[in-house]
Amino acid sequence: MAGLGQVDLLLSSLTIFRQVADDLQDAEKDSDLGKFFGHINAYGVILIDCLSPLGHGRSRPSDLDSLFHLLLKKLTTFFRHSVLPEYESELPSSNPFRRLATLVYYWSAAADNGKKLAWTQQCLDFSCHERRAEMVLILRGCVATLQTLQCDEPVAVERRARLKKGKKPLSVYTCANTVFEALFASSTACSAVHNHDCAARLRLSTHQKQVDDQREFEVFLTLNLTCHIWQETRIQAMISDLQSAKKATVKFAVRETNSEKSQHRRRRRLAVVRLCDQFEKLKSKPMMRLNLAVEDGKLWKDQSSRIERPISQSDPQISLADIIKERPASMTEKVKRVLSVLLAYSVLHLHATPWLRPSSFNADNILFFGTSATIPLKPYIHSALSEKYMQAPSSETDELDPDDLPSHPYLDLVMLAILLMELYLIQSVHSLAEQVGMEFEDWEAVDDNTRYSIAIAVYERFKADFPDNYRQAVDRCLDPDIGFDETDEELSSDDLKMLIYDEIVQPLEDELDQGFGNTIQIDKLDEVAQTMDLSRWGQMRQPIPNSIKSAELSTPVQSESIPQDSLAISRTSTFWSSSERLTSNIDTCPRHQDYTVGWICALPEELAAAQALLDDLHSPLPQDPSDLNNYTLGRMGAHNVVMACLPSGVMGTVSAARVANNMRSTFRWLRFGLMVGIGGGVPGEKDIRLGDVVVGEPNGPYGGVIQYDFGKTIKNGEVLRTGSLNRPPDVLLTAMSRLKADHYRNGADLTRHLSGMFDRYPHLSSKFSHPGSEHDVLYKSDYDHGAKPGSSCQSCDSTNLIDRKPRSSHSPYIHYGLIASGNQVMRDGRTREKLRNDLNVLCFEMEAAGIVDVFPCLVIRGICDYSDSHKTKLWQGYAATTAAAYAKELLSVISGSQIDNAERLGSFQP
């Protein structure tokens, strides 16, 4: 292996780098890094094809050697360290590519492919943007040079196999149009009697799971747009060609008792003239779904059925435009790909129907209904039923201005292209238009040809950013000749739908399959999509056990809230293995602005406990040049959290303030902070024990934290404390109130977080578990530790112990009150008691006073000693863990919307 030739070494190295890139590409959340891995993969294939003949004795131009040397040198710069140091040390020092040679040797010698790939990824570092850019330029230059030398045989980039094409889904155009006509007729009949403002919202679906002669539609209907009351409705329509042959009653997928199944009773139907009549009947049955059927163009009512997961009528619906603007973190790579496929199917199935009016097929009218606990990825398109959309009649008269003719024959395809670009770029069409110099005020007032011009301009500006399949779909949507054949004849309706499927839907399905084919089956996309929760970045909800499903029938309102706590541990993923290999959740793609919670610790033990309670660990992000902090980024429940620790050995309020300011310089979108760690307890009126948690709560003139060593000295040496420190933001104080109420009702149990942490990291139990109640002893405040500070109390006089009633369990208590903060360690029982009497404090610590004024936060301390001379470090690990567990429990009762509103609720401005 030591004598490996330059071309052979390059071939072998490219093969390995390509396999590593292929493994990392789908899991990478950073879009730029993902594109880099894509370049490595694609260019690697081309170079391997071009270099293979050169590595077997074929002559080559001499100037290629310098190019190969440059490429090998650049590959070497991506190593953090050698994959096999002992082997590398045996190679000649004159070999400039010892690490690459060692990698090739290790790759051929290691048997376990999984471990081999994991270890190689740890040894490589792709974080430097400049290094990646240089690598792509060199690869591109090598490809161009080699391809000019190999004109006899063109080289093709390797592409993943397209999905197997089975029977293409039939368009539901006819049925969808019939359903709209029936709803429109009923709405018109309503309006003739009542002044109703009827509207319908149709679920966008692939319609792949349909009975051959029927089509099923999920719809929400309303009589009044201003009251936000929507009736869940399911409508089944017979395919027109089969209606005369099949007049059987439409059957719905409702739960039937055994007696119903045995009797096979024919359900009786009722002709529906006015929708409002049926709405009135269901007012007293709020959990019932209205089931309708359309046959022969008429609307019929079938027996209503129970709603399994009712929507939240008290909350307004969320539009795609709202998500793009206000919740961009929800638009993860998985969500974008799934939603793009569903939007493409909407054109396939609803093309040229009133459902896809040019004025309504946009991001403002693609809506999502929330349940009591989630926002399922079930898009609906809003359509008013007050007036019917009619296509403008064509005219052949000489008076027609050619500029009034449409630039594109199908406006719904243009709108689909705009939606796909908004979705992928996570920017509104207003923002995209501004970037190409085509600003507008009112999108609805823009004429169709101007919309098409905007779409073309945006596509030309950003098309290089789209993946190949995505770019193909958008390009075909915007092709003005898409509806015509080679002879310039207009395609038939069926041929056009086949073309839309082949060249728009199918590429988007391929894109989804390439990224997430291991977790999403295209033919089950409708079912999978509704398990994805937009309020949790598109993560999939766990299947609900049968016992819970049956309970839903009697208590449907609680159906969505049941699994949240019980499945919390199963939703978490281990964020490093025993070898500390970083993994990332492919569902999320957090950026600086997606981190809303800042978490500061003073000691490594405190940071370790916080890290162990994270549900996911995220990849590092670039920092402000002046920011010297070292961050841990991750997710805890519904929140993205930034964690930082004070410099080793540098404690106190000044150091804490510096860390907080640095954090804000890099993560400017933080809404509030948490100061979490250990502190010295002040036993007294409240029975504070080691391992308990003290939370800084405002009391009187104090905001939760008192800087006890700051003020002015007055007569008799007394210190008059001047000024006051900020209280925590309201979003945290209201969460504290909610958590208190929950703990009053159900009891406070932080041990469940601890047990989950030790299940994942059993090696932490030796330092971070409960040391035992026998080690929790409290001496009288005037009795000093006689031995060396920090040593055990074996030689201390046990007669000076304070007798306390043993607790029934190790579960820590939570105390709320004032926390004393200063720049010195409190280790004197007499001073502790004096300050307790003067200030009524529960805890002492050394950092909070430097943070709360510059970083609005809540201070949470686990009690590790009693602030006297008997203090040791025995309880520090456990105290740090209980404090972090309380912080995690607090975040669990703070919703994303509360964080979004935190600026108005009193937190700092970034």
* Cα gyration radius (Å): 33 Å
Unreliable spans are: 151-167, 241-266, 390-395, 542-588, 900-910
Distance between the termini: 56 Å
Helix content: 25-40%
CATH architecture of the largest domain: 3-Layer(aba) Sandwich
The total of helices stands at: 30
| Average predicted local confidence, pLDDT | 77
Which terms would index this structure?
10-stranded mixed β-sheet, disordered C terminus, 910 residues, alpha/beta, single chain, globular
Describe this structure in words.
Strand 2 (214-222) and strand 3 form a beta hairpin. The model is unreliable at 151-167, 241-266, 390-395, 542-588 and 900-910 (pLDDT under 50). The protein starts with 5 loop residues before the first helix and ends in a 10-residue tail after the last helix. It folds into four domains: 6-149, no CATH class; 173-250 and 266-306, no CATH class; 318-366 and 406-533, no CATH class; 592-785 and 819-900, Nucleoside phosphorylase domain (Rossmann fold, 3-Layer(aba) Sandwich), CATH 3.40.50. The chain has 910 residues and is α/β, with parallel strands linked by helices. Strands 1, 2, 3, 4, 5, 6, 7, 8, 9 and 10 form a ten-stranded mixed beta sheet that branches. It has 30 helices and 24 strands. Residues 171-514 form the DUF7580 domain. This is DUF7580 domain-containing protein. GO terms for molecular function: catalytic activity. One of its GO terms (biological process) is nucleoside metabolic process.
